[in-house]
Automatic annotation (TrEMBL):
Catalytic activity: (3E)-nonenoyl-CoA = (2E)-nonenoyl-CoA; (3E)-tetradecenoyl-CoA = (2E)-tetradecenoyl-CoA; (2E)-tetradecenoyl-CoA = (3Z)-tetradecenoyl-CoA; a (3E)-enoyl-CoA = a 4-saturated (2E)-enoyl-CoA
Subcellular localization: Mitochondrion; Peroxisome matrix
Alphabetized UniProt keyword annotations: Acetylation, Isomerase, Mitochondrion, Peroxisome, Phosphoprotein, Transit peptide
Species name: Molossus molossus
SUPFAM superfamilies: Acyl-CoA binding protein, ClpP/crotonase
Protein family (similarity comment): In the C-terminal section; belongs to the enoyl-CoA hydratase/isomerase family.
Name of the molecule in the record: Enoyl-CoA delta isomerase 2
Protein's pathway: Lipid metabolism; fatty acid beta-oxidation
Occurrences of domain ACB (ranges): 54-139
PANTHER family according to UniProt: ENOYL-COA DELTA ISOMERASE 2 (PTHR43684:SF1), PTHR43684
Alphabetized GO MF terms: delta(3)-delta(2)-enoyl-CoA isomerase activity; fatty-acyl-CoA binding
């Protein structure tokens, strides 16, 4: 095992306030389910169906709708809006907007037209509508082992499959693979697809010089009409779902950490089954510097992995670890010289992928399942604490400092 090389942080002060390359209609649809516009008549062919969508199906549909490649048009968006409101709040009992308040009136009309449609039916109809909108792209999600096939197109990820290994590559190299709102949703979907495909191992890695610089600090800039409280609530829900998809991932999950890792990309490593790192990688969780608190279940997994004293240095004091240090503390499985990193790691992973598939999958579940309930509880608590922290002066000042190029971590 090698000692990690010392990574010298760059000091180039260069940023802008861009919020990423969302499609214009996505800006309306993607930010919040509450902003999705929808329409009434769908109940006609979908109501009364015996099959009921679970809350999880509904939440998946909420994520999927944000990833539709084509704008479904205002009529469909009105349908989605009305069904969402009916499914979550029941019949419309809001005051009718004024006649010149065109958009809100159209939304109100669509919701009101659903009358007393039961919440469960509205939820089912919502799921069915989203499924009909995205069915064509979903059908390309199955992965065959032994083929090198590009998966569903994502805006911020590249997902491929080869030799029974599904590889999810974080693909925003010009932003150091910072995770924006859409990328969180895409990772949730990619993990869901990988858990259902025929692959044996799933790998997460980064494109470019960074593995990932953590949460995209511009995420906090998309403030919905509900204001910053609503934004904090949405972020906490997204965070909980994101981390939850790692907790529940059923197959061996491996991180190939090709460069520096920060924030949430470090904390979730405690939920991976193996972590291979280049000696150029560093591991940095500057939560206190950002007025934030730990997430990704690290408040539980890190003290367990490295002991409370070492976990405190990382999670409270923001100590950056070299790959060698992270390996010595049990967060990293093995460190490789950067020059041979890819070759050595992929040779090893290809060998592992030839081991009996079911034995590996079941072993992972035996190792992890006992902890699942605890991890979900920790995740819920961390997300709820962060919902408050996002609104703190400490956090807002840190984000403003970064975005106005006054600070770098
Ligand atoms: C509900 C709340 C959930 C909270 C969840 C998670 C918490 C975390 O993940 S905390 C960690 C957050 N991450 C950071 O604070 C990192 C901030 N970035 C930096 O300090 C530096 O950019 C970094 C050290 C990563 C790299 O420095 P340089 O090598 O000098 O590169 P640049 O700074 O020029 O970066 C290039 C380009 O990328 C943009 N960038 C990088 N990281 C982020 C980020 N996390 N969020 C948004 N943007 C990021 C950077 O702004 C540059 O953009 P341009 O100026 O447009 O080129």
């Amino acid at each position: 095992m090698l000692n990690g090389g010392v990574h010298k942080p760059c000091e180039k002060p260069n940023r802008n306030l861009s919020v990423g390359n969302k499609k214009p209609w996505n800006m309306v649809v993607a930010l919040s389910p509450l902003q999705v516009i929808g329409f009434p008549s769908l109940q006609l062919h979908m109501s009364g169906i015996a099959m009921r969508a679970s809350q999880e199906d509904f939440e998946n549909a909420l994520n999927q709708v944000k990833l539709l490649k084509k704008d479904p048009g205002n009529e469909v968006k009105l349908k989605l809006y009305a069904l969402y409101k009916q499914a979550t709040e029941g019949p419309c009992n809001m005051p009718k907007p004024g006649v010149f308040d065109f958009i809100n009136k159209a939304k109100w009309d669509a919701w009101d037209a659903l009358g007393n449609l039961p919440k469960e039916t509205a939820r089912q109809n919502y799921v069915d509508l989203v499924s009909s909108l995205s069915s064509s792209s979903e059908s390309s999600n199955q992965v065959q082992p032994g083929t090198d096939r590009k998966q569903q197109e994502y805006e911020n990820l590249v997902v491929t499959s080869e030799d029974g290994i599904t590889k999810i590559t974080l693909n925003r190299p010009t932003k150091k693979n910072a995770i924006n709102t859409q990328m969180y949703q895409e990772i949730i979907l990619a993990l869901k697809a990988a858990s259902n495909d025929d692959s044996i191992l799933t790998v997460v890695t980064g494109n470019g010089d960074y593995y990932c610089s953590g949460n995209d600090l511009t995420n906090f800039m998309d403030i919905p009409p509900g204001g910053v409280e609503e934004k904090a609530k949405q972020s906490a829900v997204l965070l909980r779902d994101f981390v939850g998809s790692f907790i529940d991932f059923p197959k061996p999950l491996i991180a190939v950490v090709n460069g520096p890792a920060m924030g949430i990309s470090v904390t979730i490593l405690g939920l991976f089954d193996a972590v291979y790192a280049s000696d150029r990688a560093t591991f940095h969780t500057p939560f206190s510097h950002l007025g934030l608190t730990p997430e990704g279940c690290a408040s539980y997994t890190f003290p367990k992995i490295m002991g409370p004293a070492k976990a405190t240095e990382m999670l409270i004091f923001g100590k950056k670890l070299t790959a060698g240090e992270a390996c010595a503390q049990g967060l990293v499985t093995e460190v490789f010289p950067d020059s041979t990193f890819q070759k050595e790691v992929w040779t090893r992973l290809k060998a592992y992928s030839k081991l009996p598939k079911n034995a590996m999958k079941i072993s992972k579940q035996v190792i992890r399942n006992m902890e699942k309930e605890k991890l979900h509880a920790v995740n819920a608590e961390e997300s709820s604490v962060l919902q408050e922290r996002c609104l703190s002066d400490e956090c807002i000042n840190a984000a403003v400092n970064f975005l106005s190029k006054r600070a770098k971590l």
